[in-house]
Amino acid sequence: MQFDLRLRHALPDLTLDIALQGGPGVTALFGPSGAGKTSIINAVAGLFRPDHGRMTLGDRVLFDDRVWLPPERRRMGYVFQDGRLFPHLTVRENLRFGAPYSADAPPLDEDTLIDLLALAPLLNRRPRTLSGGETQRVALARALLCAPQMLLMDEPLAALDGPRKEDILPYLDRVKSQAGIPILYVTHAVDEIARLADHVALLQNGRITLHGPVFDVLSDPAAMPLLGVREAGAILHAVVADHGADGLTRLSVGGQFMELPGVDAAPGEQLRLRILARDVILSRTRPEGLSARNILYTTIDALQTGRGPGTAVVLQLEGQRLLARVTDRSVADLALAPGQAVYAIVKSTSVARSAMMRLGQD
Amino acid sequence: MMLDPAGWEALLLSLRVAFVATLCALPVALWLAWLLARREFPGKAVLSALVHLPLVLPPVVTGYLLLVAFGRNGPLGQFFEATLGLTFAFRWTGAALAAAIMGLPLMVRAIRLALEAVDPRLEQAAATLGTPRWAVFTRITLPLALPGVLAGAVMGFAKAMGEFGATITFVANIPGETQTLPSAIYALLQIPGQEGPAATLVLWAVAISVGAVLLSEWLARRLARRIGGRDAV
């Protein structure tokens, strides 16, 4: 099922004018706070009516300048930032709330979801006694049990602190690969995008300035200013090769090997590795006598000087792209230029655990 | 503290009038409160003023207006007589109507506040789950506002028990038909030497009112605890 959204709306201090298409899998809508992300997702849900626009999902028109389906007839699952569980009902009653109004069987049935999201111990509890992560897991299951044709998630992890966020991400991974419906995921956290998104749309000044597969967008130097220089970094596909006795795991990245600690995945499994641009060091010659163990042989694809003293270097690596950020002086000293071969050095500990994820049906 | 048969009659009649008045006014009050709390429409201020009118008008004036409208020759009185065979003038039903009208503003106020306190974002969440609007009201809004609705009903009941001015103007003071507790107390006080029976009735009136308030407090606490999130066992 494909969705096609166009929308124009004048907010108090900016005008939204966006077009966004997508299909099954996670489309992440990324933008800073106040960029109008929530207005967009609420328009899709039917909770907010924009000045102009049109949205189709499959062959259904959800709204255009004449049609306006109310939220209860849109079949959009919505996971709100604050969960919005019904406080007077138990978790089980929350989960079953929408069942009477849905004619179709949900893509994942109740037992499957209870199992997938580990909800069994929560079923008789009341929302107010749940932690933030538990709340969001219940909210996710509740939305999916209404057999939605599309899932909307508005910064579902924003209210959680780091470790809690880490707890819930694996659940999102699983749902993402099993639900099989389009998911519109609004966030301003790059790590969530790196982990979950298949496509990314960057929202800036009310417009979508960059839209494409997550691997392309995150390795695009043009996205760097918006994602934040410290957060910028490409994603690599890696395959688990073998586990060493010393706890290091060898991963194959396009035929070259990286060694990382604490990889909890079986040989043959595919992972995403997010490698921050600021953690990559470049060398013209193969470095000797270096403690860093991950040295990848790459070719420079492009150089882009931005504001400040930094240059973004796009590296090619067997069809994949890696992003490095070095100072302008280094570019001059090393005489870096497109087409040139360089060694990219990545400290193994700098590849955060959270940056790794299993690839479902990529 | 023992009541004589006439006192009993007045007490039972008052209870019946108050219960019927509260039960009949409650759905109307709910609907009006929901309109005022959740809807925007032209004439909202006028509706709000109309609902509150019995609160500010002298009860005698309300009673007179009821007499004009619902009396045997009044347009509404004739309408109800013709369609439902329901007569209000000088009947206990008229006392119930007067009590309902007088209690309505109090009920609407309490219920409106309770409805406004329900987080509309929960209603939105219910709508995204495919819930039709009426079911959002019955399954989300109403249960969450229930303590306030209950408080409103108790206010309405207490007002109905105590209503005097509009009642006596509209349906007079007929023992066994329209002589409610306040009317009976008033009648006894007109007769020299009846201070004793009057005092007994007064004590009963106080006891019932205090009991109603205590009961509502207890129920509201229980409901609030349920909403407030103790786990189901």
From TrEMBL, chain A:
Residues 289-355 form the Mop domain. InterPro entries: AAA+_ATPase, ABC_transporter-like_ATP-bd, Mo/tungstate-bd_C_term_dom, ModC_ABC_ATP-bd, Molybdenum_import_ModC, Mop_domain, P-loop_NTPase, Transp-assoc_OB_typ1. It comes from the Bacteria. GO terms for cellular component: membrane. This is Molybdenum ABC transporter ATP-binding protein. NCBIfam families: modC_ABC. The keyword ATP-binding applies. Gene3D superfamilies: 2.40.50.100, P-loop containing nucleotide triphosphate hydrolases. Keywords: ATP-binding, Cell inner membrane, Cell membrane, Membrane, Molybdenum, Nucleotide-binding, Translocase, Transport. SMART domains: AAA (SM00382). Residues 5-230 form the ABC transporter domain. GO terms for molecular function: ABC-type transporter activity; ATP binding; ATP hydrolysis activity; molybdate ion transmembrane transporter activity.
UniProtKB/TrEMBL annotation, chain B:
Residues 11-214 form the ABC transmembrane type-1 domain. The chain crosses the membrane at residues 12-37, 49-70, 90-115, 136-158, 201-220. GO terms for molecular function: molybdate ion transmembrane transporter activity. The keyword tRNA-binding does not apply. CDD domains: TM_PBP2. Its main location: membrane. It comes from the Bacteria. Part of the binding-protein-dependent transport system for molybdenum; probably responsible for the translocation of the substrate across the membrane. This is Molybdenum transport system permease. It comes from Aliishimia ponticola.
